[in-house]
Specification:
Layout (H helix, E strand, L loop, with lengths): L12 H9 L1 H25 L7 H25 L11 H7 L6 H29 L3 H28 L2 H21 L8
Length: 194
């Protein structure tokens, strides 16, 4: 059973250059993304309380993402960077969510697979950031995050396989990977995780 996924296109050097040229803005966006990731895991718990097989992992993921937020916030505090007043829309995530099926069952699978792709893209980008950083503390932090996000990418595929046929999951996942690559290539490059 394959739990990891291969992204169709790699993130660009231009994206990494944008992040490294305004790392403070990247940290602000990163903090927002961790808050949203925690909320997303907990929204699965709220919307699908009958899916008892995956509730413990969802709760654990929500807590872990909130801990990541706390760690990013501490880095921001050290640098005198404030949280943004409001969390802005994420054009990447919005574009993915617009492609979701509307039926309860189909939407549930789509949301799990989107979560897998978003976490996998996050892992790829955190790895790029870790390798580009010179400051040892930051480098170590982003390496830890890259490993964690990769794990989360696997968890959401595993969750989908709990409830849907393997062939259906992998076929739909393949479709999502293709859609994600189109969305990524059309996005404006900015110092943000997505």
């Amino acid at each position: 059973m394959k739990l990891n996924l291969d992204l169709a296109v790699p993130s660009s050097q231009e994206w990494l250059d944008a992040v490294m040229s305004d790392f403070n803005a990247f940290l602000q966006d990163h903090a927002d993304c961790e808050r949203k990731a925690s909320a997303m895991a907990m929204s699965f718990v709220a919307k699908y309380p009958d899916r008892i097989e995956i509730l413990p992992e969802l709760i654990e993921t929500g807590i872990e993402e909130l801990e990541h937020f706390q760690q990013v916030y501490e880095l921001m505090e050290e640098r005198g960077i404030r949280l943004q007043h409001s969390i802005g829309k994420d054009p990447y995530l919005d574009a993915l969510l617009k492609l979701c099926h509307s039926g309860r069952q189909e939407r549930f699978m789509d949301r799990l697979l989107i979560a897998s792709i978003v976490e996998t893209r996050g892992a790829e980008r955190f790895k790029m950031v870790a390798e580009a950083l010179n400051e040892e503390k930051l480098k170590k932090f982003y390496k830890t995050l890259w490993v964690s996000e990769a794990k989360h990418g696997h968890i959401f595929v595993k969750m989908a396989l709990q409830y849907f046929e393997k062939e259906k999951v992998y076929k739909r996942l393949e479709w999502w990977v293709e859609q994600e690559s189109k969305i990524l290539e059309a996005l404006e490059i900015r110092p943000a995780l997505h």
